[in-house]
Specification:
The chain is mainly alpha-helical. The protein has two domains: about 1-100; about 100-190, no CATH class. Helix content is about 85%, strand content about 0%. The protein is built from eight helices and no strands. Helix 5 (about 75-130) runs parallel beside helix 8.
Length: about 200
C-alpha cells in the first residue's frame, strides 16, 4: 500500500512539474508571428511606441524563458500568459495601424483643402498689394513662395498613391505652415497700405 502511495505521489509530482515545465514554443512562435504581421502592416512606422513596447515585451519574455530553461524545473506559466497577451496586442496593432493610416489620409485631405483656400486667398491679396518702390521685388518673391507651396502640394497625391503617408503628412504640414505664413505677411502688407492711403 505504501509503495502504491509513493508511486502515485511521484506520478503526481512528475505531472505537476512537466505541466509547469513545458517550454511554450508555440506561444513564442505565435507572438513572433503576430509581431511580424504588425510590422508588415507598418505598425513600426505609424504606431512606433506601441510596436516597440510589444517588441521589448517579447524580448523580455524570451530572456525570462531562457532563465527558466537553465533551472531543473522551469516554470513557464507566467511567460506563457504574457506571450498570449503579446500575440493578442500585436494582432490588435494591425487593425489600429490601418485605422491610423485612414486618419492620416483624412488629415492630409483636410489640410490640402485648407491650403487650396489659402492659396486662392493669397493670390487675390497678391494682386491687391501695392507695387510701389521696392514692392514689386517683394511681391515677386512672395509669388515664388506661393508657387513653391502649390508645387509641394501637387506632389502629395502621388505620395499617398504610393502608400508614403508619413511623407505626405510632413509635406502637407510644411506647405500649410508656409501658406499661413504668406497669408499673414500679405495681410500685414495690405493693412499697412490701407493706413497710408
Amino acid at each position: 500500500m505504501k509503495k502504491n502511495v509513493f508511486v502515485l505521489t511521484m506520478i503526481a509530482a512528475a505531472l505537476f512539474f512537466t505541466s509547469c515545465g513545458k517550454l511554450p514554443q508555440n506561444e513564442i512562435d505565435a507572438a513572433k508571428n503576430a509581431l511580424e504581421q504588425a510590422k508588415t502592416a507598418q505598425a513600426d512606422l505609424y504606431l512606433q511606441a506601441d510596436f516597440y513596447a510589444l517588441q521589448d515585451s517579447l524580448n523580455a519574455m524570451v530572456v525570462a524563458i531562457e532563465e527558466q530553461k537553465s533551472k531543473m524545473f522551469g516554470d513557464y506559466k507566467l511567460a506563457t500568459e504574457k506571450l498570449n497577451e503579446i500575440t493578442v496586442q500585436a494582432t490588435d496593432l494591425v487593425a489600429k495601424t490601418e485605422l491610423r493610416k485612414e486618419e492620416i489620409k483624412t488629415e492630409v485631405a483636410s489640410a490640402q483643402s485648407a491650403i487650396t483656400t489659402l492659396l486662392k486667398e493669397n493670390s487675390q491679396m497678391l494682386e491687391l498689394a501695392p507695387k510701389g518702390k521696392g514692392g514689386t521685388e517683394v511681391l515677386d518673391a512672395i509669388k515664388v513662395e506661393i508657387d513653391g507651396v502649390s508645387s509641394s502640394v501637387s506632389e502629395v497625391p502621388a505620395l499617398i498613391e504610393n502608400g508614403d503617408l508619413l511623407n505626405a503628412q510632413t509635406k502637407v504640414k510644411a506647405a500649410q505652415e508656409k501658406a499661413v505664413e504668406i497669408n499673414t505677411e500679405l495681410k500685414a502688407v495690405l493693412e499697412e497700405s490701407m493706413k497710408k492711403s
